[in-house]
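Quiz preparation item.
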């Protein structure tokens, strides 16, 4: 993941999966890193969403434009 950059972070797995699916539908490969604390059922921490550096601006624009 050398050329990958974080484009957003969310609190729940459902939102992260929606964003990753939405980005894939728009031709942007994305991945997540789950940094939630599993001991507390995801109550603490965030899920970070990454994409390739060259797609970051487009991904941010799509996420903001569609409010996801």
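Solution:
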């Amino acid at each position: 993941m050398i050329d990958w950059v974080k484009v957003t972070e969310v609190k729940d797995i459902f939102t992260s999966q929606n964003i990753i699916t939405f980005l894939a539908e728009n031709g942007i490969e994305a991945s997540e890193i789950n940094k939630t604390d599993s001991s507390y059922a995801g109550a603490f921490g965030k899920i970070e969403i990454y994409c390739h550096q060259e797609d970051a601006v487009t991904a941010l624009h799509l996420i903001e434009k569609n409010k996801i």
